[in-house]
Amino acid sequence: MNMRPNNGHSASATPPPRGSSSSRGGSSSAAQQLQTTALAQTHSAHFYTLVRRIGECKSRTEEITIATKEAAYLKGVLAKNEATPEVLIRLLYAEMLGADASFAYIHAVKATHSSHLQTKRLGHLLVQLFLTSKDPLMLLLINTCHQDLKSADVLVVCAALHTLARLTSEDTIPAVLPTVVELLNHKSQLVRKKAVMVLSKFQKVTSDATTKQMLQQKFCLMLCDKDPSVMGASLNGLHDALCTHMEGEDLIRMKNLVPSLVSILKQITQRRLPRSYEYHRTPAPFIQIKLLKMLAKLGQNDQASSEHMYQVLSEVLKANGRQPSAQSHTSTIQSALVFETIRTIATIYPSTELLTLAAQSTSALLRSKHRNLKYVGIDSLMHITRVNPSYAQEHQMAVVDCLEDSDDTIRRKTFDLLAAMTTQQNVEVVVEKMSAYLTDLNHLSGMDAKLIRSRILTEIANLAERHAPSVGWYVEKMRELLELGGDDVPVQLCDRVIAACASDDGVANAACQAYGSALRERGCDVHAPFFRVAAAVLGEHISGADAAASTARCMISTVEENVRLDDAERALVASAMGKLVSKNDSMAVTEVSEFAAAGMRSRSTELAQRCGELKELLHTKVATASPGAGSGANVAAALAGASAYAATRGGSTYVPVEERRRRKLAEAVAAGGVSVQEASASAPPPQSYLERQAVLQAAKEARASASAGLRKSGAGARQQWGGVEAPPPPPPPVAPSASSTPSTPTLDVDIGYGGENINWNKGDKMPRIL
Questions:
Q1: Structure confidence at residue 455 (pLDDT)
Q2: Which has the closest alpha carbon to 151: 122, 126, 188?
Q3: Which of 60, 211, 258, 632 could form a disulfide with 768 if both were Cys (CB 3.0 to 4.6 A apart)?
Q4: How far is 749 from 638, CA to CA, in rounded Å?
Q5: How would DSSP label each residue in 710-755?
């Protein structure tokens, strides 16, 4: 309705004749005329024009334009004159529409100092909308609020309490807390209720444990107030304290409230509150819900406290657990109470009688035609099933009907219920149903659909891991799951499959067969997550040279032909083939070498690095291989064999590092003039305690030999190195005969013994080095 100023014509008009239709309800018409006249005297025509123009705007741009012009005009007015209530209201319009009215914030604070009631209340309203708890003007406002809290006018006190509830901060709490606490004893129930609300705000803001404990005591005290509104406000404070950050000793201390909370809930159920607290003929339903949540928290894992609640919970369930006949507000609020009661029954220490009654109430919700109530019934049955799965048996048909519902929300919630009901006997049926539903979701797109599919994939994997009847079934279902999920399979799910194969050899062998056959049959169609799992499992657990070579060729062909795979998957193939090559000495490496050479030219840093490592591994394998040699042992055995082979051809015998250090120390001691301790200090530090002890023992033996007269002999005598005869010098190299094959290449291999390099002919036999 557009409000326009009175132009005076209605005052001069002739009144209608007595008994006419215009004179009916004359008292109301006169009241409207008086109200219009008063508004016309209070506000100017410019104010009504502003309201009308804002109401006639067709776009957001027009609103911003009007608000900006109004703010600029009022800024000039405030520069010359004092702020009037009308100017402040017009500033409020401009600020709410997006214009900058920060120049008027100080005038709003000044309005809270006014002695006029309407102006003061308007000032408190404006500062609540203009300022924040961190605004510098709060320093001026707190003093005004502190004075207004002590006012004899109830409206002034309520306005100050509203401001504190809106703008309080942790720094301002100590200044006003004592005054607010005194208002808990105010004679007006409205002031007491608002004081409790402010204390609830203080509890959320403060971080001081002492202050929180004091506020909780005040809430417990106000719980016994004679006015139901004050009692309900104190319940909010206790609920916030109990259900958010209370645990340990504080929670144990709050258990003394159980009898009081049960008494309040019983009085509400018996309709002892005034009729004004009823909502669609349901007594104080929102207070009941808060009480039920608090009782659930206090009765959890506590049999003594839970036994006090059994009777009242049964009464609440019987009072609201009627069959919901139609979609109405009454059935909706009663169903909300039934659901909250069932959740409380499932949370506290279990009672067989209450669980049976809760299951019966759930049955009525599941049979409802209203989808919201059916959803609530599924959620209620899921809470009961977590306590005792046997209560879900009688509702199996209703749950199956929910699986066929056209509402996707109900179907997803039903699958959550099935997950809670799953055992090893019915896991195959449940997983089959969930997989079929996952197939139906393939037509959806967008981020929400991706999240839904990822969630269902994770749930199916959880069921398969917990209730798998056999290893083969688990491996097959996880393979189907990875194929069905496509690119929506989460990374965590892939890691779990790989970890399961690594922890059990039976799972690993079955997985190698399943993923190997899948790549050979439809490698061109698999998605990236499936291929990542297949590459990791096959590369780690495939054994046998022939199987490894076949697997390598299969992975190379798949990654080259599948357009869904990129350089990240090629890098995984390089890592997998590196594992296969390192475990299988006789594996064919032609395709692998070509793949590594191509990957080293890639722009992907990871792919190029892994292919380079694979190339080095192949080069080492070829360099250390010999025709007819079987599978090599470890590196130490290979080096020992190479050293013995070199000695037969005139090379020096390999001397370990520890032996060399011991000999040098013995020579220094035998030469005289050096003690065992000095020689040990001058020698390179040993690597370990055992080496150090070996060096000291060798030094003592050398000292004993020196004292017995063993010295170095002259020319022509045998050279003694610590009692070890030196090997003969190597013979001169022999020129190759004409019968030798000229095309046989020579490989220069440094095997690291004695610091010498030996030329090996490719036709000579040499142990392999892994």
A1: 86
A2: 188
A3: 632
A4: 13
A5: -----TTSPPEETTEEPPPPPPPPPPPPTTS-TT--EEEE---STT
pLDDT over threshold 80, residue 716: no
At 695, list the tokens: 């060096």
Give the max Cα distance, the chain: 157
Residues 276-317: tens digit of each pLDDT: 999 988 999 999 999 999 999 999 888 999 999 999 999 999
* Cβ pair 406, 440 in contact under 8 A: no
Residue 126 has φ and ψ, to the nearest 5°, of: -65, -40
Q: Which helix (H) or strand (E) holds 420?
A: helix 408-421
Instruction: Convert the pLDDT of each residue in 341-398 to its tens digit.
Output: 999 999 999 999 999 899 888 888 888 888 888 899 899 998 998 888 888 777 877 8
CA-based angle 101:105:107, to the nearest 5? 115
Is 759 strand, coil or helix?
strand
Tally of CB atoms within 10 A around 570: 23
The answer for 4, left when phi > 0, alpha when psi is -120 to 50, beta otherwise, is beta
Amino acid type, 448: D
Q: Would you state the torsion angle of the CA atoms of residues 595, 599, 600, 604, taken in this order, to the nearest 10 degrees?
A: -170
Cα separation of 73 and 61, whole Å?
18
Phi, psi dihedral angles at 760 (to 5 degrees): -105, 135
d(C-alpha 664, C-alpha 699), whole Å: 10
d(CA 120, CA 628): 103
Q: What is the rounded CA–CA span in Å between residue 137 and residue 148?
A: 17
How many whole angstroms separate alpha carbon 480 and alpha carbon 467? 17
For CA atoms 23, 25, 27, 29, give the dihedral sign: negative
- In contact, 322 and 334? CB cutoff 8 Å: yes
Close Cβ partners of 111 (under 8 Å, ≥ 6 residues apart): 83, 85, 88, 119, 120, 122, 123, 126
Could you write out the DSSP letters of every residue in 255-322? Answer: GGGHHHHHHHHHHHHTT-S-GGGEETTEESHHHHHHHHHHHHHHHTT-HHHHHTTHHHHHHHHHHH-S
Instruction: Tell me how long the chain is.
Output: 770
Q: Is the dihedral of CA 730, 732, 733, 738 positive or negative?
A: negative
Contact assessment for residue 9 and residue 40, using Cβ atoms and an 8 Å cutoff: no
Distances (CA, A) of 384 to 318, 392, 417, 418: 17, 8, 10, 13
- With tokens 């369930």, the residue in question is 317
Mean pLDDT to the nearest integer, 514-519: 88
Phi and psi, residue 686, nearest 5°: -65, 165
In this predicted model, which residue has the larger pLDDT, 32 or 477?
477
Region label for 227, one of left (φ > 0), alpha (ψ between -120 and 50) or beta (otherwise): beta
What are the residues whose beta carbons fall under 8 Å from the beta carbon of 156, sequence distance 6 or more? 117, 120, 121, 148
**Structure-derived torsion over alpha carbons of residues 483, 485, 490, 492, reported in degrees to the nearest 10:** -50
User: 348: burial class by Cβ within 10 Å (0-12, 13-18, 19+)?
Assistant: buried
At residue 761, the 3 state secondary structure works out as: strand
